[in-house]
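Page 42, continued from yesterday. The earlier attempt failed because a stray header line got pasted into the input along with the sequence. Redoing it now with the clean sequence only.
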Amino acid sequence: QSAQGSTKPQLTIVFETGTTTPPASLALSGPLTQPEGNSGSTTFAFTVTRSGDTTQPASASWAVAGSGTNPASANDFAGATLPAGTVSFAPGENSQTIAVQVAGDTTVEPNETFTLTLSNPTGATIANASTTATITNDDVASTPNRVTVTFQQGVGGYAGTVDTNLRGADPTTSYAVAKQLFTDTETGGA
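This time it went through. Structure tokens are written below.
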């Protein structure tokens, strides 16, 4: 080319740096521990958090199973079935709650454990698939009714008094039972 003003074509390359939103991911809260209650049902609320790309819908299946040393059974839940369902996210939502209904009772029992597990995700991956919950026993064993007996050995046998706190029991019967227990204790009987 001549030096008289001709120009060479130029190529300009522009690099744009942008941020890429990571794919959507689901994670469960937990663990939870709370009492069962004495009647009706108690809600164990688990939070499922969605992070990353929240512009599209997402969902996952969830299910409860007994776990640990004293696993919860179907009878420990409302409806006497192990709970299961689906948690769904609309575009823009990043938090949902799974409400597991635990049946209340008045039975004295050990604490029971269950595991809630997420599976089969759509539109997301699962970062934290499971968590545990402990149903704590809030029932108290009743104390047996007591009979306080005071006996003194006298001529021809025993004489004594009975302080009874037996609900609805006949004091004469209470005395006879208490006397037999005292006699068995004195003689080594059972």
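Notes: The first strand starts at residue 25 and ends at 28.
Reminder to self: strip header lines before submitting.
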